[in-house]
Amino acid sequence: MASPRERMIISTALLIRERGAHSTAISDVLEHSGAPRGSAYHHFPGGRTQLLGEAVDFAAEHVATQMAGATTGFELLDGVVGRFRDALLESDFRAGCPVAAVAVEADNGPVLDRAGAAFTRWHDLIAERLVADGLAEARARELTLFLTSAIEGAVVVARATRDLAPLDSTHRQLAALLHAEMGSTRDDR
């Protein structure tokens, strides 16, 4: 069972992905996590900034673990898009990426730095996977930036329109791009 501190970090990440960082107050986190009021100050002496930073780190690690388990670039792409797709449907299009949400609200330097580190870590994992699949390092890095940007953008548009079409279309286009880059055969979507 998660400790009150862990529950608060997880709750913060979940609330940020739906509300953004600005709209996620410590009182909301306490209510969502069920943690006692005094625990916020006890576990996070750096206040809201520390809590937001640790929530970004938690989300970054969660996604990185899932990415690291992929055995091909296609599996990685399908997994990332599939998890966003599920989250959008389960949350009635409220859930996005907590790391992107923090990055968009870029007024907290330390938290923004953690978001940047999360994206860098994800880029490294994706690029490593694509290189392992046979792409040259430089091309893998370029595609990694494009994949991440396209997926994050598609999630934003899907949330705003309450429609999976932007995410599904982006998924098909990215899969086709990977097919072309890797010269592989795979069933069309």
UniProtKB/TrEMBL annotation:
HTH tetR-type domain: residues covered: 15-54
Keyword annotations from UniProtKB, A to Z: DNA-binding, Transcription, Transcription regulation
Keyword DNA-binding annotated: yes
Taxonomic superkingdom: Bacteria
Ranges for domain Transcriptional regulator LmrA/YxaF-like C-terminal: 77-173
Statement: the UniProt record of this protein carries the keyword Transcription regulation: yes
Pfam families in alphabetical order: TetR_C_13_2, TetR_N
Molecular-function GO term, any one: DNA binding
Name of the protein in its database record: TetR/AcrR family transcriptional regulator
Organism: Mycobacterium yunnanensis
